[in-house]
Amino acid sequence: MMKRIFIFPFYCIFFLLSLAGCTNKNAASSSALNNGKLTVVSSIFVPYDFTRVIAGDRVNIKMLLPPAAESHSFEPTPQDIITIQNSDVFIYVGGESDRWAARILDSMDTSKMRILSLMEIVDVVEEEIVEGMEEEDEEDEGPAYDEHVWTSPKNAALILRAITETLCKLDDANSAFYRQNAENYLASLDELDASFRSIVNGTKRKTIIFGDRFPFRYFADAYGLSYFAAFPGCSTETECSAGTVAFLIDKIRAEKIPVVFFIELSNEKIADTLADETGAKKLLLHSAHNISKRDFDKGVSYLELMKQNAVNLKEALQ
Ligand SMILES: [Zn+2]
Known about the structure:
Elements: H1 2-30, E1 38-42, H2 45-55, E2 59-63, H3 78-85, E3 89-92, H4 99-106, E4 114-117, H5 118-121, H6 153-170, H7 175-201, E5 207-214, H8 217-223, E6 226-232, H9 242-254, E7 259-262, H10 269-278, E8 281-284, H11 293-298, H12 302-316
Parallel strand pairs: 1-2, 1-3, 3-4, 5-6, 5-7, 7-8
Bound molecules: zinc ion.
């Protein structure tokens, strides 16, 4: 008699748990899981920032790359892999520097996740080696596609739209909120695009020089800029040959180029050398691979970084 009384609640609990399990699994693809919110995980900064703009605190957002870390040598920790597995939406670049993501996704049950690859959202172009640039010891065959797709505001808009559509599909209850935020941001990206265009159209100079890597292929193409740089976009090199330095110094002198650029989180050594030798001013053009810890904590956005880029570009094209 006593036994039956105790056994029955046990069955009940077991039954309820298994029901809850079912509901959770189904919910993963249709609505929220973690404290009633979708979980979005981004490998790098820009999609993280865009998701924050679209969804605010209505989703859980996580950037895998720690602030200030070098994105090209990032390797995920076991905890990162669990974080990806538990996400509703996982966003990565899909290029050379996050091949690890493709490997992980291959070995994972991704049936309940939405996966966005930035390089599948936009039209990609091959990484370019221009005159004077250090070539890398290429281990793998053929040229790689340039993965810095977000550096052009038009591409940024495509990425923002793709993230918005994905969130709206998974979380219909908040879709009006997401779409409104996206529309506002798209208007800002349009203004940004127009401001770059008017800066470039308003000056004769169309050449920019980088004493650094050059992750701005999409940006330069968008505005008809030509460029010279020490290294291609994803180079891991930081030392360059005397020949490269001499070539860039000659260019700066010959065209009286007023500004030499470096990129974020750089040691700035080559830009320093070029600036010292030629008297050109050294300025940052931020490619938004990643941001410093201080900027991350302040919540600095892609748009703010690009607006400062517009100021610096204007000076460089004078
Ligand atoms: Zn890169």
